[in-house]
Amino acid sequence: MNKGRSQTFTFMMEMIIVIFFFALSSMICVSFLSSSKHKMDDGKYLQASMNEANNMIVIMQHEKDKSIEELFDVKKEKDYYVYKGMQIRIENNQYVKKGTIKISDEIIIPFVIGEKDEG
Q1: How far apart are CA 89 and CA 83, in angstroms?
Q2: Cα separation values, 36 from 31, 61, 69, Å
Q3: In angstroms, rounded to a whole number, what is the distance separating the alpha carbons of residues 108 and 87?
Q4: pTM for the complete prediction?
Q5: Does residue 67 sit in helix, strand or coil?
Q6: How far is 90 from 101, CA to CA, in rounded Å?
Q7: Per-residue pLDDT tens digits for 6-25
Q8: Is there a contact between 53 and 101 (Cβ–Cβ < 8 Å)?
């Protein structure tokens, strides 16, 4: 009778250890899936932001006759040629537009749009 109880106890301990390792490995897999989902969402945001920045630059290239204030929701700063709005900073003079488009604190896209020097 003791032999039967001993085998049952050993079997139960083995099952508890197996379930513990299964739960631990499941938890690790779920954390990997969660972190990959966050990275995928960050990638989607970055791609959308890059497309928006590219569109802004293309609009400035094609709409050279319109003022920057008409094209975007930006305002002039104290300096006559500097505009600033949500995530964009544009320096403008007679021949060249240059500036940055800020996507996040780490990602800032510089751009220069200007006339080719004939010289």
Answers
A1: 6
A2: 9, 37, 40
A3: 9
A4: 0.57
A5: coil
A6: 8
A7: 788 888 999 999 999 999 99
A8: yes
